[in-house]
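User: Can you predict the 3D structure for this chain?
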Amino acid sequence: MLLNASGCLDALAAPEVARLLDVFVTKTVTPLPREGNHPVRIAETDAGMLNTIGLANPGIDEFVRGTLPRLLEVGVPVWVSVGGFCARDYAESCARLDGEDVEAFELNVSCPNVASPAEATEEIVAAARMATAKPLFTKLSPQLPDVAGVARAAARAGTDGLSLVNTLRGLALDGRTLAPLLSTASGGLSGPALRPVALAAVHACYAATGLPIVGMGGIESGAHALDLIAAGASACALGTILFRDPHAPTRVRAELAEAAARLGFAQPFDARGVAHREPGAMLPSLAKVPAKVD
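Assistant: Here is the predicted structure, written as structure tokens:
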């Protein structure tokens, strides 16, 4: 299953691209409208992209009234990314959307400083779980000191799956002035530099929870997607690549099938979790190779 990473595709501006996906994930919606941060809000780096959008969105009421009906007309199942600044914010938005024709919620978790990440995440997920019976996927930061521990906390609170990973904090300077390029100085780093970090988080959280995982972070090819699946992902999301190659879903889907078949898997997701196999266990393609006789 292929999705977009939240905020990396506008389905209303590019419905033909959204229709290449199995699921469309919205930008993060908060209870009240937010204008977001001042420009400059996006900057390129050698290894990806920095952004400091600041959760700009019209608020839950306008989203339900004006945006969601138009998104549903695109014809792709919709997941709504929900954000906030306390557990109540997440619960209110999930409750407001519970009767709408959305498939699932992605909880864009940003843990308050007053509690440990595990405690805050558990509180947010539990509040959202009480507000809706729809599937919940909890999106975690790779900067957590113990991402697997926070994933276990989300599982205890009732999340149905995980989205791994969100961005890393980064900074880029203007080569002429040596001033930060972004209005907020630092921002969220996405793109190729995030791949090894995403792999590590997916690997750790799959081992810790066994939950369904949407793997994301620097996917540019089918081989990159297969790596995340082997680490434990049961779906993959494309992010920064969509800015450079809007039709990447078609290419990545084909490359993924080819890469999996080359290793002997009938379907790409048959490879889920093989990076956790016992020492000495062989991939299907290697199992077909006759043993060497001395």
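The domain at 2-287 is CATH 3.20.20.70 (TIM Barrel). The chain is about 35% helix and 15% strand.
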